[in-house]
Amino acid sequence: MADITDIKTILYTEKSLELKEKGVLVVQTSTRMTKNKLKEIFKSYFGFTPIKINSLRQEGKAKRFKNKMGRRIDFKKFYVKVPEGANVDSLSM
């Protein structure tokens, strides 16, 4: 079973704040998270079922660290459509 600790962060960017006004929450997780696991987390911890979940796999950028090439960590980004009146304040800032 999925645990709430599998959610790394809620993204707060200009785009994600615009989407939040429309009822869409942007969640960053590890690459092994699936839509069904994320749906279970929202059901068990927040008491509602998301209307729709879209996922995006983001590969880490290649960066130079102290003259050596390295990579940032890969992650998954989920766009979760939240039903009207649902409370997700425990995840918010």
From TrEMBL:
Keyword Zinc part of the UniProt annotation: no
Entry keyword Ribonucleoprotein: yes
GO cellular component labels: ribonucleoprotein complex; ribosome
Pfam families per UniProt: Ribosomal_L23
Gene Ontology biological process: translation
UniProt cross-references to InterPro entries, sorted A to Z: Nucleotide-bd_a/b_plait_sf, Ribosomal_uL23-like, Ribosomal_uL23/eL15/eS24_sf
GO molecular function, one term: structural constituent of ribosome
Superkingdom, taxonomy of origin: Bacteria
Family membership noted in the UniProt record: Belongs to the universal ribosomal protein uL23 family.
Quaternary structure (record): Part of the 50S ribosomal subunit. Contacts protein L29, and trigger factor when it is bound to the ribosome.
Protein's name in the database: Large ribosomal subunit protein uL23
